[in-house]
Amino acid sequence: MDLVEGHLAREVPENVPVWDIDPYDPAILSDPTDYYAELRRLGPFVYIPKYAMLACGRFEVTKTVFSDWERFVSSRGVGLQDFSLETPWRPHSIILEVDPPDHTKTRTVMSRAMSPRAVNNLKEAFQTAADSLIDQLLEQGPFEAVEDLAETYPTTVFPEAVGLHKSDRRRLVDYGAMVFNALGPDNALRQQAMAKGPDIVPWITEQCERKNLRTDGIGASIYAAADNGDITEAEAGMLVRSLLSAGVDTTVSGIGSALWCLATHPEEFEKLKEDPSLARPAFEETLRYTSPVHSFCRTANLDTEVAGISIAEGTKILCVLAAANLDEDHWPNADRFDIERRPVGHLALGTGIHGCVGQNIARAELEAVLSAIARKVETITLTGDAIWRPNNAIHALDRMPLSFTAKS
Ligand code: OVV
User: Fold this and answer.
1) Cα–Cα distance, 27 to 6 (Å, whole number)
2) Measured between alpha carbons, how far is residue 226 from residues 109, 232, 277 in Å?
3) Helices (H), 7-58
4) Which letter does DSSP use for residue 50 in this model?
5) Whose CA is closest to atom 9 on ligand 1?
6) What are the b/e assignments for 178-198, b being 16+ CB within 10 Å?
7) For residue 117, how far is its CA from the centre of ligand 1 (angstroms)?
8) How far is the CA of 98 from the centre of ligand 1 (A)?
9) Best label site of 19, 249, 379, 404, fewest CB within 10 Å?
10) How many whole angstroms separate alpha carbon 349 and alpha carbon 288?
11) Measured CA distances, 50 to 76, 138, 184, 301, 387 (Å)
12) Atom 4 in ligand 1: which residue has the minimum CA distance?
C-alpha cells in the first residue's frame, strides 16, 4: 500500500467529489474564505488527491468526526502523518496524540492544573499586565500589532503563569510554529519551521524540567501530580511541553485576529467600548469568525460510515474547524462579525474529550486584553495592510500596523 505524507493512500469513497486543490498552499492559507465555502458546497466530504485524504468543513459532519474518538482517533496523529506507520518528529504528545484510556489520566492532571479556580488566581496579574501594555502602546503611538501586542502579551503572562524563570518570545513563538506546521505536509512551511529545531527544541526541553520551574505555577501543579503518583516525573515534563506547544501561538493568533476584527468592524468596537463586559463574547465571536486552529486531522481506526459515505480504516480526514465555524447552515449570517452573537458550540476550541484544556487561560488572557482596550482606547486604525503568516494548522497574522487613540 502506498504512503502519501506518511499515511495510507486509500481510494476515493463512492459519491465523494474529487477536488484538485492544495489546502496547504500559502496563498490559500493566507486567504482561506473561498476555499472554506467551496469545501462546504461540494458535500459532507471531499477527496483531495494531492494528499490522498478526505476533508470536511460542514458544521455537523466536522463536529461528528472531530468528537468521535472511538472511530476517529488521535493516537495516529492529528496531522497528515500516521503515527502507526511513521515515527513523528518529536516524542508524541501524551495528551493530544493519544486516545482513552491513556488520554484520561493526563487530561485529568491538565484540567486540574488549569481549573477555573487555578485560572481565577491568575486574573489579577493578567489584567495588570494588559492595562500596562495598552497604556504603553497608547503612549508610544503607531505600533506593530503582531510583535508589540499579539506576541508580546502571551509570551509575557503565559510563561509567568507556567512558572518559567525566563521567557524567550522568539523561541516560544517559533516552537509553536514548528508544532503546528508539523501537522501539515512536508512543504516549505514545515521545512522552514523545522530548520529552527536545533536551536529551539533543546531550550524548550530544558524549560520543562522541574528544576527550571517556579514552585507556584501551573508547571509546579503538574509536577505535584507526579509527587502524588498520578503520573511519572517524565510524564510531568511532557505535559509542561504540551503547555508550551499549545499555549502560545494559539493565543497570539487570538489576540491578533481580535484586533483585526475590531479594526475592520468599527461599529462592533463601538459596542465593546460602550459595554466592556462584551470582551468575552467578542473573543468567542473572534474564535468563530477567524478560528486560530484552522484544521486538525483525525484517522479512521476502522472501516466505517459517516453521512452515508464509506470511510476505510487508515483514512486521514482533515477537519476544517474554521470552515465549520462559518457554515451558514448552522450560523445565521455566518459571514457577519457580531460581538453580541454568543456563538455557543463553535468548534474553534475543538469539542469532546480533546476540547482545548487550556481554554480557561485563553479566555482569561483575551478578556484582560480586550477589556483594557475597551476601557482605554477610543479608535483602532489600520495604518497599512494586515498580512497573514501562513501555517499548516494555525491562522494568524504576520504583521499589522495599527494606531490607537486614547479615550479622553
Ligand atoms: C498543537 C498542539 C495542540 C494541543 C496540544 C499539543 C500540541 C501538545 O503538544 O500536547
Assistant:
1) 24
2) 10, 5, 39
3) 26-30, 33-42
4) G
5) 242
6) bbbbbbbbebebbeebbeebe
7) 23
8) 11
9) 379
10) 9
11) 20, 48, 12, 22, 27
12) 246
pLDDT values of the chain reduced to their tens digit, one per residue, 408 residues: 789 999 999 999 999 999 999 999 999 999 999 999 999 999 999 999 999 999 999 999 999 999 999 999 999 999 999 999 999 999 999 999 999 999 999 999 999 999 999 999 999 999 999 999 999 999 999 999 999 999 999 999 999 999 999 899 999 999 999 999 999 999 999 999 999 999 999 999 999 999 999 999 999 999 999 999 999 999 999 999 999 999 999 999 999 999 999 999 999 999 999 999 999 999 999 999 999 999 999 999 999 999 999 999 999 999 999 999 999 999 999 999 999 999 999 999 999 999 999 999 999 999 999 999 999 999 999 999 999 999 999 999 999 999 999 998
Question: What pLDDT was estimated at residue 102?
Answer: 97
Range of the domain at 21: 3-406
C-alpha cell at 223: 509536577
Split into its structural domains, the chain has a count of 1
User: What are the DSSP calls for 117-176, one per residue?
Assistant: HHHHTTHHHHHHHHHHHHHHHHHH-SEEHIIIIIIHHHHHHHHHHHTBSS--HHHHHHHH
CA atoms of 363 and 346, how far apart (whole Å)? 14
Determine what percent of the chain falls in helix, strand and coil, rounding each to the nearest 5: 50, 15, 35
Dihedral of the alpha carbons of 9, 14, 15, 17, in degrees to the nearest 10: 20
Q: What is the pLDDT of residue 2?
A: 87
Report how far residue 9's alpha carbon sits from residue 1's, in angstroms, rounded to the nearest whole number. Answer: 7
| 78 CA to centre of ligand 1 in angstroms | 10
Spacing, Cα 15 to ligand 1 middle (Å): 34
Per residue in 53-81, pLDDT tens?
Answer: 999 999 999 999 999 999 999 999 999 99
The count of other CB atoms within 10 Å of the CB of residue 43 is 18
Domain CATH for 126: 1.10.630.10
Burial string for 12-35 (b: 16+ CB within 10 Å, else e) reads ebeebeebebebbebebbeebeeb
Residue nearest to atom 8 of ligand 1 (CA): 242
pTM check: above 0.85: yes
Q: How many residues does the chain have?
A: 408
Closest CA to 254 of 290, 294, 295: 290
